[in-house]
Amino acid sequence: MSEQSPAGSIVRSAFGQLPNGAAVDLYQLRNPHGMEVHIATYGGIVTFLTAPDRQGHWADVVLGYDSLAGYLKSSPYFGALIGRYANRIAHGSFALNGTRYMLAINNAPNSLHGGIVGFDKVLWKVTGSAVTPEGPALTLGYVSADGEEGYPGTLTVQATYTLTTKDALRLEFTASTDKDTVLNLTQHTYFNLRGHGDVLGSVAQINANTFTPIDSTQIPTGEVRAVANTPLDFRSPMPIGARIDASDEQICFGLGYDHNWVIDKPAGALGVMATVYEPETGRVVEVSSSEPGLQFYTGNFLDGTIKGKGGRIYQRRDAFTLEPQHYPDSPNHLAFPSTVLKPGQPYRSVIAYRFFAR
After folding, report:
1. pLDDT confidence of 6, banded at 50, 70, 90?
2. The domain spanning residue 326 has which CATH number?
3. Domain of residue 297, residue span
4. How far apart are CA 141 and CA 139, in angstroms?
5. Terminal CA-to-CA distance of the chain, rounded, Å?
6. Contact 16/68 with Cβ under 8 angstroms?
7. Contact criterion met (CB below 8 Å) for 244 and 257
8. How many structural domains comprise the chain?
9. Cβ contacts of 294 within 8 Å, gap of 6 or more
10. What is the pLDDT of residues 86-139, one digit of tens each?
11. Distance between CA atoms of 184 and 87, rounded to whole angstroms?
12. Which residues are annotated as catalytic?
């Protein structure tokens, strides 16, 4: 299957089979400038994404595997869609409307990224693909049954990826439920703007005056704390490695950066959250979203045991993630922005990663 127009092209190819025999497809989206993204129907995974350097050369800037087998065997959420609840829920438990719900503990003592079989490990159905005036677009759908991974309500989700003519990968989530539930969706691509090696020299700027401190199990304490005079102050551009090993309790709890920043913008408004610039290549990624928080993670748990694309060994801090989302453990913190979704209430979330060079 292929579709082409002046705004770009879409090509579908086989990407293997799941253990149950279900076929997995890979969709290659290409915009008029030559930017490419490859998206698998398994997990909605971004397996390949190119960005230009200052000489105009395009190169893959995301971590992952060369084949489906790698993602099935072991993957720290490389490139995947995350749900039902991105990030951690304390002790795998929350109360809603007087009922306590119990979730899988897959990041002891907490539940992480939707549980044992989250949205990153399911087969999404292609509900639409077209080359639009904005660029090639792919829509994936998934119906999560009532009680799946312990969450209430039958949830119907759609995720539309668009590779825009402005060199951005845009992701729009929509969802509806038939019962009150909690929902927090995001995208978990691991970026490396050098292509390989550590990201400590990349320069980050995060538009946030405050963050949500965590405890030793990486659950928010409920406090919203100023970033001023802490290693988490990225209000001005700062190399990622400059303070990543600072003698600071929050850095110790996260083993580096693995925190939620409270972005300075109106609630629900689409705004720029952060930029990361790589001095060696000139590549820049700018993330915008309608979400209130940004989880910035620096690959602290990559430990050299994963052999990725081209046989490359992924070491600690060989990538960073930019995950727009609601705050971790929000169902257990009434002061945080609510993640409750009710029947008849529309859910919409937008994330956009724009790439350029300087």
Report:
1. confident
2. 2.70.98.10
3. 2-357
4. 7
5. 36
6. yes
7. yes
8. 1
9. 206, 208, 260, 261, 263, 273, 274, 287, 322, 323, 324, 325
10. 999 999 999 999 999 999 999 999 999 999 999 999 999 999 999 999 999 999
11. 8
12. 188, 323
